[in-house]
Amino acid sequence: MHPFLILSRFGHFDVEEEEGEEPSAMEPFLILSRFGFFDVMETVEWGIWRASPATKPNLSSLPAPLPPPLHPFLLKLLESMGSNTEVLQLSPEEDEEARLYAVQLVMAAALPMTLKAAIELRLLEIIVKAGPGAKLSAVDVASQLPTQNPQAADMVDRMLRLLAAYRIVSCTAEPGAAGQLLRKYGATPVCKHLTVNEDGVSMAPLCLFGLDKVMINFWYYLKDAVLEGGVCFHKAYGMTAFEYNGTDPRFNKLFNECMRSHSSIITEKLLDVYCGFDDVKVLVDVGGGTGAALHMITSRHLQIKGINFDLPHVISEAPSFPGVEHVSGDMFVSVPQSDTIFMKWILHDWNDEQCSKLLKNCWKALPEKGKLIVVEYVLPLLPEPNLNIRGAFHLDINMMVFLGGKERTLNEFQALALEAGFSGFTSTYISMHTWVIEFKK
């Protein structure tokens, strides 16, 4: 039997089994997916493979593309791509749709700024606390605000109306006074993640941090950074973002609260799907912030002694946790020794050269057969117009302007690991574009 090629919406699959056959023992094969090249080393179940990114993908070994007739999905994909000439030849309906989309794009700042104000005013919390299925009018919501502004209810109504257009809240209408429609607003599923949960965290601090004046200001330097080089944040403030945190207590507190909340959410997901902490004795969290993530890990795995390692101005804000020791220092100089090192959302802060230096310091701090556990966002190979893929590229552009860092594909992470001296590499998806990756010494 000869290998054949499957082209699906997830990429090219070089498969050793005929369609419909129960898989048998087979040689490793290559998958080219949106996240990179993967050597499939073992069949776990029919249709499920255990894979790791390919060390040296050999495109020449792939079979020739399928001959016509093409799969209907591929035909649809090619038709949707079109040519530049075809893009300019629109029907009146298509042209109107494109024009409306252009208007939405140039006015896009209205949505995040309205959401920020809604969070600060606690509008979503007021709606959620009203109970499941509850519907509140703008007057109902505004009556719970500390204001005497006679226009508050009208302004709240217009804000919630915009949020409803993006399914952030729901909106229904019923007859009101003088024959006017009365809009009432309710909670939608996303409200669960924008209001405080039972653990006291939500995504709201990330919104408040990302739209803070300090964060908005440096975006005005993006054009200059492209033409002249440099990092937008540094151009705006004359220092790196981490240096700035040490000079602005208000912003540093906002940053730490953002990291605490976002970190707690993803760490909870990590602990649900990842078993790599079971055999850990001493865990150093490099760039661990105030220690919230490490505390969650050590609370679930009581055998672990935790060392939270970060810069002095960060450690100064860290609360005391049982089983966790706070240590200040510079990870680019050295890293505390342990059998396992943990880094969450650290590598994306830095360019490849800086990451290489940091990873080599981690390699030196680990014993033989020690491991580095990395939690990072992972980019697909190509952009696609869907919620998940868009979010990954949003993250990447934010890292570029904020820190001069970058999000990476799995192949790029593996290249960094090999260059630093690590020999093993495995990866598992967690949630929200985030993967846990093991580098083994």
- Count of β-strands: 15
Helix content: 40-55%
Taking the sheet with the most strands, its summary is: 7 strands, mixed
Strand order of the largest sheet: 11-10-9-12-13-15-14
Shape, please? globular
Structural class: alpha/beta
> Terminal Cα separation, in Å?
38 Å
Query: For the residues shown, what is the average pLDDT?
Result: 84
Which percent band covers the strand fraction? 15-25%
In DSSP terms, counting alpha (H) and pi (I) runs of 4 or more, how many helices? 19
What oligomeric arrangement do these chains adopt?
Answer: single chain
The low-confidence runs, each spanning 5 or more residues with pLDDT under 50, are 1-35, 37-70
Q: Supply Rg.
A: 25 Å
What does this structure look like?
One of its GO terms (molecular function) is O-methyltransferase activity. One of its GO terms (biological process) is methylation. It comes from Musa troglodytarum. The protein is of the alpha/beta class and 441 residues long. 41% of the residues lie in helices and 20% in strands. β1 (4-8) and β2 form a beta hairpin. α4 packs across α7 and α9 packs across α14 (249-273). The two termini are 38 Å apart. It has 19 helices and 15 strands. Residues 1-35 and 37-70 have low confidence and may be disordered.
